Amino acid sequence: MYQRLAKLTAATVKPAHVQILKRSYAVSSSLIKPIKELTHLDSNVPEATRNQIEEFNNYTIPTYARPEFVISHGKGCYVFDSNQRKYLDFTAGIAVTALGHADPQVAEVIYNQAKKLVHISNLYHNENAGALAKKLVDITHASPGGQWASKLFLANSGTEANEGALKFARKWGKQFANGDQKTEIVCFTHSFHGRSMGALSVTSNYKYQKPFEPLIPNIKTSEFNDLQSALDCINENTCGVIIEPIQGEGGVHPATDKFLKAIRQRCDETDALLIFDEIQCGLSRTGKLWGHQHVSGCTPDILTLAKPLANGIPIGAIMTNKKVGDFIKTGEHGTTFGGNPLASAVALHVLERITTPDFINSVNEHGEYIKDLLNQLKEIYPDTIKEVRGKGLLIGVEFNKDPSPIVKMARERGLLIVTAGCNTVRIIPPLNIGKEEIIEGVNKFAGALEQFRSI
């Protein structure tokens, strides 16, 4: 029934109406068939692989806790380890590989550009960086409420983009009469903006911050979705406010309409810049081009983006409105690798594919489909699953206790998932995932869930 209705709606109604129709039916409960067999035991790894990892660890700073197998290649929504075991990837490289792994068109773009020019530095123009900046602005202009976008700075990562945005906000505050005091930046609880010193300073997780104190000064932390707390924090000494319209690492929490609009108004009243960190929730991940577009009439002064922009080739960007873009002058910011011809060429190609109305509509369709299945699991296991939430294919499953063990349990069934804050597991597959892969993934998740309930 689902497939027949999906085809009917695609053929007979405009995309804007599809979401309404999709809610008029239920996914069959017969699709839920928990996979209990442990086919990918972590312990079932050849000695040669363990020896290889041990050797690597002798030369690698131990900042990551990783299972003892080696991912060797991928295809579509799957990756394979060096023991030829196949895993369904519900992490997408932490919301990066929007088009899946080893996409042939992306590979062709990389190959063709690598034969032509990989790097030239920002001492000179290249053919792709300016075209990418124009493309991002044009695509934003064509989306609802997107006329605010004006200029871009191309960086190498989301963290770098956030660092630049914080610098822009600090400079912005200097122009006012109280410029020596207008240096405060407001961030929010459960946020994640990166691991470098500036980005870490506005990432309000003390576990991440403590080893590196003192952090940068004049940072205020407000409660996320607490309107009065935000209004109390944002004042005449605030130069910038940084917020994820939909938090990812913090547990997949959307900002409420009232909250986001009030912050926008308060920033206008105090001449502070509003920075939307859309590194995880932007570029179609939530079923709209930008995550903030779920709240009508609320636009940023600065928007940072990265993860899916080049499907895994490192790149990030700062997009600004005109007043900010014109305010930053030559020599005030820079990067060696940012906007290089290779990354920009791939990003141009990826943008063409992941921002079409049909593609975004499919993200919404598949997001609703997977949430319907996950909500069935919630009904089956109400004592274990507290809530299923999210938009598009940025989905959080909140548990009644720490779900960390379920990551291993899912992996040993051939499913890769990742946790987030607030006892939440994130479901962030490639944006071009199919329904058969969704069913497979949910059933492997269901099998892991049954094991998790027994501990």
Notes on the protein architecture:
The longest helix is centred in the last third of the chain and has 24 residues, at 357-380. With 455 residues, this protein is of the alpha/beta class. A hairpin with a 5-residue loop joins strand 8 (246-247) and strand 9 (253-254). The chain is built from 16 helices and 17 strands. The protein has two domains: 2-102 and 358-453, Aspartate Aminotransferase, domain 1, CATH 3.90.1150.10; 110-355, Aspartate Aminotransferase, domain 2. The protein is globular. A seven-stranded mixed sheet has the order 4-12-11-10-7-5-6, sandwiched between helices. A four-stranded mixed sheet has the order 1-2-3-15.
Largest sheet data = 7 strands, mixed
* β-strand amount: 15-25%
Structural class: alpha/beta
Strand tally is 17
Number of helices: 16
Features:
455 residues; 17 strands; globular; four-stranded mixed β-sheet; alpha/beta; Aspartate Aminotransferase, domain 1; Aspartate Aminotransferase, domain 2; disordered N terminus
